[in-house]
């Protein structure tokens, strides 16, 4: 009986050890998603609003964070398999969100169709046909799907948001779909004088959370408390403004 109890305790200890992450090491996928998170080519360091916001939390928790780049689809599969530990994402963008755990939303933004022509801001999309829309490859756009499937809108994929803007400026598409924070950041990087005008229709609200492999579930209470503190203190908005000015 005593041997059986010891064996049971040993098995349980092994299961707990397997379920726990490697202490203090968190591997985070980073896409090229400026100004939220991106590789600074001048220093080969990951920069952006999100790394800046979460650095104090990782220090507080004595977690050594390491950012790795991958194709978004491959990164998603790596997260399911536990090859990486986390990625900043909206649960709606993933194929198996139930397989992961998510923090509370860190920040929110609005997605718009943008045009270079001010008169397009009041365009009636319900009567438009065969417009070319600059989109980001591998991204899902539920708000635009009816226009693609029913009105002949043409999806023109780009490898990055910067490429979306260049394609719009070069008239390779009629409109570009991106969020308002990215649009403002991109326009600040452009030498070419231009203005982006958001359309009143096809607006979608979205947010970004930190998704984690389930082995990091125990981190969620402290993580969500930190996010709340950052929001209430104004640190989130301040980080956004720093990267937009």
Mean pLDDT: 89
Q: What proportion of the residues form beta strands (DSSP E)?
A: 15-25%
Find the CATH superfamily of the largest domain: Periplasmic binding protein-like II
Instruction: Give the end-to-end Cα distance, rounded to a whole number of Å.
Output: 70 Å
- Overall structural class, as computed from helix and strand content, comes to alpha/beta
- The CATH topology assignment of the largest domain is D-Maltodextrin-Binding Protein, domain 2
Tell the overall outline.
Answer: globular
Give the CATH level 1 class of the largest domain.
Alpha Beta
SSE sequence, one letter per element = HEEEHEHEEEEHEHEHEEHH
Domain module tally:
2
> How many beta strands in the DSSP annotation?
12
Helix content: 25-40%
Q: Could you give a short account of the major beta sheet?
A: 10 strands, mixed
Proper CATH architecture of the largest domain: 3-Layer(aba) Sandwich
* Rg calc: 21 Å
Low-confidence blocks of residues: 1-20
Tally the helices: what do you get? 8
Can you walk me through this structure?
The protein has two domains: 18-107 and 207-243, Periplasmic binding protein-like II (D-Maltodextrin-Binding Protein, domain 2, 3-Layer(aba) Sandwich), CATH 3.40.190.10; 109-205, Periplasmic binding protein-like II (D-Maltodextrin-Binding Protein, domain 2), CATH 3.40.190.10. Strands 1, 4, 5, 6, 7, 8, 9, 10, 11 and 12 form a ten-stranded mixed sheet that branches. The chain has a two-stranded antiparallel sheet with strand order 2-3. The chain starts with a helix and ends with a helix. Helix 2 crosses helix 8 (235-243). The protein has 245 residues and is of the alpha/beta class. It contains eight helices and twelve strands. It comes from Rheinheimera pacifica. Keywords: Signal. Residues 1-19 form the signal peptide. This is ABC-type amino acid transport substrate-binding protein.
């Amino acid at each position: 009986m005593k041997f059986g109890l010891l064996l049971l305790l040993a098995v349980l200890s092994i299961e707990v050890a397997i379920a726990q992450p490697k202490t203090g090491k968190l591997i985070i996928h980073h896409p090229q998603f400026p100004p939220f998170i991106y590789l600074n080519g001048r220093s080969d360091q990951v920069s952006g609003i999100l790394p800046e916001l979460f650095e104090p939390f990782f220090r507080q928790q004595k977690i050594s964070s390491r950012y790795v780049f991958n194709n978004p689809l491959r990164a998603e599969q790596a997260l399911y398999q536990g090859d990486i530990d986390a990625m900043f994402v909206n649960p709606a963008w993933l194929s198996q969100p139930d397989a992961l755990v998510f923090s509370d939303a860190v920040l929110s933004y609005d997605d718009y169709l943008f045009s270079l022509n001010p008169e397009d801001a009041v365009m009636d999309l319900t009567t438009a046909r065969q417009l070319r829309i600059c989109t980001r490859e591998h991204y899902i756009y539920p708000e635009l799907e009816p226009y693609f499937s029913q009105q002949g809108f043409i999806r023109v994929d780009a490898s990055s948001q910067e490429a979306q803007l260049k394609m719009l400026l070069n008239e390779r598409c009629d409109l570009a779909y991106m969020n308002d924070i990215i649009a403002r950041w991109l326009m600040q990087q452009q030498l070419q004088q231009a203005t982006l005008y958001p359309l009143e229709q096809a607006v979608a609200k979205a947010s970004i959370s930190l998704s984690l492999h389930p082995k990091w579930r125990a981190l969620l209470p402290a993580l969500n408390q930190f996010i709340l503190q950052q929001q209430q203190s104004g640190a989130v908005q301040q980080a956004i403004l720093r990267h937009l000015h």
